[in-house]
From TrEMBL:
Component of the RNA polymerase III (Pol III) complex consisting of 17 subunits. Keywords: DNA-directed RNA polymerase, Nucleus, Transcription. Pfam families: HTH_9, RNA_pol_Rpc82, WHD_POLR3C. It comes from Zea mays. Residues 364-442 form the DNA-directed RNA polymerase III subunit RPC3 winged-helix domain. This is DNA-directed RNA polymerase III subunit RPC3. GO terms for molecular function: single-stranded DNA binding. The keyword NAD does not apply. Residues 9-67 form the RNA polymerase III subunit RPC82-related helix-turn-helix domain. GO terms for biological process: DNA-templated transcription. GO terms for cellular component: RNA polymerase III complex.
Length: 506
């Protein structure tokens, strides 16, 4: 469930990109969940045409997923629309996504930019846009060159074919246990939200998602052309006809979009690599960087896996790397918690989620320390590590703090909704009276509370940036001062987004 400030932030993002009417439709779906077209019209009191156009824009830009579901008696189904909150927030990271491709596949940057700006495009549209973007003094790329660059994005899983437009999804059938369903998958399904279930239902198989555009020469771009040149050995006429049809469909009808999961993994990997750098020695740092640079593409978004040959090659390219032995590099990798498995001792794997969890705790503890001081930091850290209720006197003994200070600090943390308290009857009570004492634990929803504060802060920063932009448009006398303030706020928003990604995306 998205928090109130998270919804307001999403509405603000959509409003900036597509206007107030589209943002109203998006906000309605985020607040009320999946709704039909008629339900949205009734709730917002907008015309059916306005709602329909808004939904088409949101679907085009991957912010809403449509699906059909049973409704009423018999076999009657209805089309429902569900806002994808994660994809709305990803619009904040478009510049970060471009920077990833700029380093990895620089020649494909224009193609990626087209998909980021337009949401969903066919390969035909991408070719036209790429040619249009070429400056007058530069040579025009051939269709085959564009196709090669595009297939690099598909091969690296940066781009995928769009999911099913309106898949059938029955919530009741999903919730009902079946005798043929295995226990492990059933446990995973139970924790998925409606949004996640609908997205999974609409998703294509990996073979379909990342199926590249077939190889044809420039003449294959038009379905009306009678002659198609094929590179390589000659093939039978029947096979050629099938390939031509597939190529025409793939280029002019199949829609493509950004694979957000892959880009978030790249940002997650970069974040974890940077977090450890400050505490490393020069020799260790070179091996750590080489490990991440040698990362092989896989479907796992939780770990980084690199072959030892790739690590050695990249270590050798760094200062002092040629003098490092295999044993030394292996020892450092083990110290950095990059482990090899018995199944494949030639590959090393690092658990990103473990480091992310540590960084999350550090961030919250740092905020507690900043707001309430060292004593609050000490007590909160104790409760967080303990993971179970701790009695007041035990907190006093283990933190070596004054009893009065402990009581005051616990009250501050409780009031700020970081911890919970509970009265527990004493087992050693004697006589007719019943002795009681307080126990304290970290709140189960303290992270949700923290994330809501992050959404609130991001919303405030965005509104302040927009306000500065409006003042500049009005032609204020203090233009230089306003521009400097705006740049400072944008920088603050960029840094704040790292915390938002840490808790929401990673």
């Amino acid at each position: 469930m998205v928090s109130q400030h998270g919804i307001l932030l999403a509405v603000n993002i959509i409003s900036d990109h597509f206007g107030p009417i589209v943002s109203k439709v998006c906000g309605c779906l985020l607040r009320h969940g999946a709704l039909s077209l008629q339900d949205i019209v009734r709730r917002l009191e907008l015309s059916p045409g306005q709602v329909k156009n808004s939904l088409l824009i949101l679907i085009q830009h991957n912010c809403v997923q449509a699906y059909t579901s049973p409704r009423g008696a018999g076999d009657r189904t209805v089309t429902l629309y569900l806002a994808i909150f994660d994809n709305v927030l990803h619009r904040l990271r478009f510049s970060k996504f471009l920077s990833v491709v700029r380093v990895d596949i620089p020649e494909s940057e224009v193609l990626l930019e087209g998909l980021l700006q337009n949401g969903r495009l066919t390969f035909e549209q991408l070719v036209e846009r790429t040619i249009f973007k070429v400056s007058e003094d530069s040579p025009l790329p051939t269709r085959e060159e564009v196709r090669m660059n595009f297939n690099k994005l598909v091969y690296a899983h940066y781009v995928e074919r769009c999911p099913k437009p309106e898949p059938f999804f029955d919530p009741l059938a999903v919730e009902q246990p079946t005798s043929t369903r295995k226990r492990a998958p059933k446990t995973v399904e139970a924790v998925l939200s409606l949004e996640q279930k609908v997205v999974c239902t609409a998703a294509l198989s990996d073979a379909e998602r990342f199926s590249e555009i077939p190889y044809f020469m420039d003449g294959s771009s038009s379905a009306k052309d009678g002659h198609h040149a094929v590179a390589g050995n000659k093939r039978k006429h029947e096979t050629l006809e099938v390939d031509e049809d597939d190529s025409i469909i793939a280029e002019s009808e199949v829609l493509w979009r950004i694979n957000f999961e892959r880009f978030i993994f790249c940002l997650k990997k970069k974040f974890c690599a940077e977090r450890k750098k400050a505490k490393m020695r020069l020799g260790t740092l070179a091996i750590w960087e080489a490990f991440f640079e040698a990362n092989v593409t896989n479907n796992d978004n939780k770990t980084v896996t690199s072959p030892i040959d790739g690590i050695l090659e990249r270590v050798g390219q760094k200062e002092g790397g040629m003098s490092m032995t295999l044993d030394h590099i292996t020892s450092v990798l083990n110290d950095l918690e990059c482990t090899s498995t018995a199944n494949n001792p030639e590959e090393f794997t690092f658990d990103l989620n473990k480091l992310v969890e540590t960084c999350r705790n550090d961030e919250i503890e740092s905020l507690v320390k900043k707001k309430h001081g060292q004593e609050a930091y000490t007590i909160f850290r104790l409760l967080l590590k303990q993971g179970s209720p701790v009695e007041t006197d035990e907190i006093t003994d283990r933190t070596i703090l004054d009893k009065q200070v402990v009581h005051e600090t616990l009250y501050k943390l409780w009031k700020d909704e970081y911890i919970d308290s509970e009265r527990v009857p004493s087992t050693s009570a004697t006589g007719t009276g019943s002795a009681q004492f307080f126990v304290w634990r970290v709140k189960n929803i303290y992270r949700e509370h923290f994330m809501d504060n992050l959404y609130h802060a991001a919303l405030n920063l965005r509104q302040m940036v927009n306000y500065m932009a409006e003042l500049l448009l009005e032609g204020s006398k203090d233009e230089i001062k306003l521009r400097n303030r705006k740049n400072i706020l944008i920088l603050a928003l960029t840094r704040h987004d790292e915390s938002l990604m840490l808790f929401h995306d990673f």
